[in-house]
């Protein structure tokens, strides 16, 4: 809720919301860090320290929005929130050193997960937002980080596209694995479903805005056709139980389908002036918030 609380203080003039947001971030920063610089997904809220067990580090579920909001806090502040940028950059470098891999079969770039001491070579569909996040961070960085992170962003977007292209429905599964058997595919029944998630489109949107490479619009249109063919129903759209055998729908239209899937698709095919990224930052549910220009914006931390 960092972006939302910062904006709430901005529009109300009451600093208490901003102070609460910074207090949380400072508690995270103050906690005894891991030697590799990565953040555990679990913290003891009574002690303000990371849990020794379980250790779960992921760009997917539980970890995703934390990293997203670090770079977006920097953008929202019009570059004043340097602490957020530094925390973001330190975290990305730690991921590069430990949990970003390239598959041996297809040379696909992906974020792995760390559970206790084991690295799991799987990636959640949720983590597909990270292509857009890395691209955003790259535009705020200098060389050589700028080029390196833009290349990573492109690689992640391509991997997530492949997770779609390798299914019969051309929609990606909830989780996909990388192994000697295959790359970017799901194996278990609990991994093969699609619940109208938007994160792949989120990366297509940012990559389109930052590069204007026409392949991102082409990939987005392929996504539209898949939604129309396999997810559309009389009353709306619903997810699929199995993207590889797209016969049975789950009979649920998720709220984020309206908030994010349709919005990102609209923006991909709109002019850049529609929600100009020099003026707006999208929160984790794709709701636009204005970039708070100086001198009105203050990042004074909680005491």
How does this model look, in words?
The longest helix has 21 residues, at 145-165. The mean pLDDT is 94. This protein has a three-stranded antiparallel β-sheet with strand order 3-6-7, with no helix packed on it. It is 44% helix and 13% strand. With 303 residues, the chain is an alpha+beta fold. It is built from nine helices and 14 strands. The chain has helices at 2-12, 16-30, 64-76, 82-98, 130-139, 145-165, 199-211, 214-231, 255-268; strands at 43-44, 49-50, 56-57, 100-102, 109-111, 113-115, 118-120, 122-124, 175-178, 183-185, 232-233, 236-237, 280-282, 288-290. The radius of gyration is 19 Å and the shape is globular. It has a single domain (21-290), classed as Glycosyltransferase (Alpha/alpha barrel), CATH 1.50.10. Helix 7 packs antiparallel against helix 8. Strand 1 and strand 2 form a beta hairpin.
Give the helices and strands, then pairings.
Layout: H1 2-12, H2 16-30, E1 43-44, E2 49-50, E3 56-57, H3 64-76, H4 82-98, E4 100-102, E5 109-111, E6 113-115, E7 118-120, E8 122-124, H5 130-139, H6 145-165, E9 175-178, E10 183-185, H7 199-211, H8 214-231, E11 232-233, E12 236-237, H9 255-268, E13 280-282, E14 288-290
Antiparallel strand pairs: 1-2, 3-6, 4-5, 6-7, 8-9, 9-10, 11-12, 13-14
Helix pairs in contact: 1-2, 3-4, 3-5, 5-6, 5-7, 6-7, 7-8, 7-9
Binding site for Ca(2+): 284
Protein name: alpha-1,2-Mannosidase
Disulfide bonds: 128-160
């Amino acid at each position: 809720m960092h972006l939302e609380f910062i904006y709430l203080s901005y529009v109300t003039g009451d600093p208490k919301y901003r102070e609460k947001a910074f207090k949380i971030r400072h508690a995270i920063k103050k906690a005894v860090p891991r030697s590799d610089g990565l953040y555990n997904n679990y913290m003891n809220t009574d002690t303000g320290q990371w849990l020794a067990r379980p250790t779960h580090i992921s760009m997917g579920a539980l970890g995703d929005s934390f990293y997203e909001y670090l770079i977006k806090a920097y953008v929202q502040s019009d570059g004043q929130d340097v602490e957020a940028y530094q925390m973001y950059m330190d975290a990305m470098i730690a991921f590069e050193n430990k949990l970003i891999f390239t598959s041996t079969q297809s040379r696909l770039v992906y974020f792995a997960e760390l559970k206790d001491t084991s690295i799991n070579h799987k990636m959640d569909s949720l983590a597909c937002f990270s292509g857009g996040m890395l691209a955003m961070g790259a535009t705020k960085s200098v060389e050589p980080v700028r080029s390196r992170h833009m290349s990573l962003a492109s690689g992640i977007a391509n991997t997530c596209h492949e997770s779609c292209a390798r299914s019969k429905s051309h929609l990606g599964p909830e989780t996909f694995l990388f192994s000697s058997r295959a790359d970017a595919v799901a194996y278990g029944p609990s991994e093969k479903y699609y619940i109208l998630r938007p994160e792949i489109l989120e990366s297509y949107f940012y990559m389109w805005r930052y590069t204007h490479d026409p392949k991102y619009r082409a990939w987005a249109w392929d996504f539209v056709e898949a939604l129309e063919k396999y997810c559309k129903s009389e009353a709306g759209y619903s997810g699929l139980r199995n993207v590889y055998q797209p016969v049975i729908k789950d009979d649920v239209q998720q709220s984020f389908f309206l908030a994010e899937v349709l919005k990102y698709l609209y923006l991909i095919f709109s002019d850049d002036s529609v929600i100009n990224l020099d003026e707006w930052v999208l929160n984790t549910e794709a709701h636009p918030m204005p970039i708070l220009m100086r001198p009105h914006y203050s990042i004074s931390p909680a005491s």
